[in-house]
Amino acid sequence: MQISGGIARERDASLNQGRSVSSTPLGLDARVSVSSDRPALETPSLSLIVPTHNRRELLARLLSGLERQHTRGTRFEVVVAVDGSTDGTDEMLARLHTSYPLRVVSKAHGGAGAARNAAIAAATGDVLLFVDDDVLPQDGLLEGHLRVHSRDPLAAVAGRMAPPPDHALPVWLAWEAAVIERHYSRIEAGLVAPSWREFWTSNASVRREHALAVGGFDKGFKREEDVDFGYRLSTLGLRFYFLPDAVIHHIPDKTLDFWLHQLHERGHDQLLHRDVRVASEFSFAEDWRGRHPLNRMLTRWCLGHTARTRLVVGALKRAIASPRPGARRLQLLLCSALVNINYWSGVAELIGGGDALWRHIEEPAVAVIADRA
After folding, report:
1. pTM of this prediction?
2. Run of H or E including 136
3. Could you report the per-residue pLDDT of 276-290, keeping only the tens digit for each?
4. Which is the most buried residue in 49, 146, 202, 277, by most CB within 10 A?
């Protein structure tokens, strides 16, 4: 199945009212901190952008946590986009009284990208800080983002996403958190430069004019609309920063089945990524070669064979979900195998099956996430 024209088709025309920005690249991505010799600008105003769908209690927890941030002195507004919720979210928000300005935009269910676009349209801040509804902001988060934007008007900023230190995650989510933390460590060590690949909207900010200039989020994506958004921001010549001390605690509530479903959808999204990237640092073939040889072998043995894939995935799921003591390390390794099977199954599904994927995998045309299982 050929996918084409996704970005031009799905981007919100209503957001194309921003001031034009030069697309000339402005040098290397910035590492960790802003140069202290760059003169400070006037502190920009700030809008937090929060999409939500049927997670009333998690959203209430986030909004309560922002009360503490407001008492620290930083001024901000929060724009919540209710994406077709049916769990009483609108009623909870109508009753809620906050010390900070709270704007609510309610819309029919259309996905996280469409919800963020609606919130961007309603926001008044110079800077947009994107957070998810299942996070808890830590002290210094808002100040850290604003500090960078106060010194660099062409900044795009990513902060750290981490589980709370006292919170035990299921093994599949612990695996995911470890992969993310490993990538952060590579940035801090100077092995990888901050880039659009880390513009994850659980903790990322950019000036509103730049969000408008790229037309907001592409509604065609199912899971990686934030990475695509970051990529398009990079075409404006923005400088990307990673702030290790601007932290949100992420407490996901994903079941194993839902986690695997998301991985499958990430595979779908890779074809949309290819649709808009002319030059890419990673191709399908490079991504595949970067995987562990055992993961490649198992994935290739499964794809294109429905019964075989069902058998292997079922066995891996049972092993990972088992409460058996002492099995944690092995379960983390098995997560990597399960990730590869589900991700590449998603890619193959849209390409035309396993055989089509192996033919297609030699074409160096698609950018993918730098971290590999």
Report:
1. 0.82
2. strand 135-137
3. 554 454 467 777 888
4. 49
pLDDT at 353: 72
345-372 burial: b if 16+ Cβ within 10 Å, else e: bbbbbbbeebebbeebbeeeebbbbeeb
Distance CA 51, CA 45 (A): 20
Measured N-to-C along each axis, helices 171-188 and 328-351 cross at an angle, to the nearest 10 degrees, of 80
Angle between helices 306-321 and 171-188 (to 10 degrees): 90
> HSE on the CB side for 73, CA within 13 Å?
3
For residue 270, count other CB atoms closer than 10 A to its CB.
22
The 10s digit of each residue's pLDDT in 66-102 is 999 998 889 999 999 999 999 999 999 999 999 999 9
Q: Which residues are CB-neighbours of 245 under 8 A, at least 6 positions away?
A: 140, 144, 160
Coil, strand or helix: which one is 373? coil
Q: Which residues does 48 contact at the CB level (< 8 Å), separation at least 6?
A: 66, 76, 77, 78, 79, 128, 129, 130, 131
What domains are there in the chain, each with its CATH number?
6-253 (3.90.550.10), 257-360 (no CATH)
- Which CA distances in Å does 150 have to 51, 153, 196? 26, 7, 20
Angle of helix 256-276 versus helix 171-188 axis, rounded to 10: 40
CA angle 114, 120, 181 (to 5 degrees): 80
Residue with tokens 């993310």: 180
Looking at 221-366, which runs of residues are DSSP E strands? 239-250
Cα 237 to its chain centre, rounded Å, is: 20
Residue in the structure block whose two tokens are 């907001």: 216
Residues 6+ apart with CB under 8 A from 58: 52, 133, 134, 253
Q: The tokens of 205 are what?
A: 């900010």
Q: Which residue has the tokens 């009360």?
A: 67
Rounded to whole angstroms, how far apart are CA atoms 49 and 104? Answer: 10
Give, rounded to a whole angstrom, the gap between the first and last alpha carbons of the chain.
Answer: 26
Structure token pair of residue 148? 């960078």
What is the C-alpha separation between 12 and 9, in angstroms, rounded? Answer: 9
